[in-house]
Amino acid sequence: MITIEPLKPEDREAWESLFRAYIAFYERVAPQEVYDRAWREFSTGERLHALGAQLDGELVGIVHFLVHPSTSALTDVCYLQDLFTAPEARGKGVARALIEAVADWARDRECDRVYWHTKESNVTARRLYDRVAINRGFIQYQLPL
Q1: The pTM is what?
Q2: Is residue 144 domain-resident?
Q3: Does the keyword Acyltransferase apply (predicted)?
Q4: Is the CA virtual torsion 86, 98, 49, 111 positive or negative?
Q5: Quick check: helix, strand or coil at residue 131?
Q6: CATH assignment of the domain containing 95
Q7: pLDDT tens by residue, 21-34
Q8: Are 98 and 61 in contact (CB under 8 A)?
Q9: At what angle do helices 32-44 and 12-25 cross, to 10 degrees?
Q10: In a domain, 138, yes or no
Q11: Could you list the residue range(s) of the whole structural domain that residue 12 is in?
C-alpha cells in the first residue's frame, strides 16, 4: 500500500538520495547547498512544499511543488516542479499517487490548476502524464541569469 504524507525530519537522507537521482536523471549537477536550501524551505512549508510516497515503510517517491499567482486565472495555480520515483518502485502507482496528492492539496487551497513540465524524451513518464492530465503543447524556454 502506498502512503503519501509530508516529509518528516527522519526522511532527510532518503529524500536527498531520491532528489539527487532526480537531478542526475535530468543530467544536472547541484551543489550540496541546493539540497540544504530545498530541505529548509520544505521544513517551513511557506514557499515550497514536498510530499513523500512510502511503500512498505520505505520512501520511494517524492514530489516538490509551489503555488503562485496567475494573470490568466482568478485564483492561484500550483506548479509541480519535481516528481521522482525510485526505479524499483516504478509501475506500482507511486507517481500517480503523488500527482493526485498534489492535486488534492491544491484543490483544498482553491487553486485553479496544477501544471508541470517534462522532457519530450521522457517517454515513460509521459505515458502516465497523458492519462492524468492534458498536454497543452507548450514549449519551455529558459534564459539563464
Answers
A1: 0.95
A2: no
A3: yes
A4: positive
A5: helix
A6: 3.40.630.30
A7: 999 999 999 999 99
A8: yes
A9: 120
A10: no
A11: 2-132
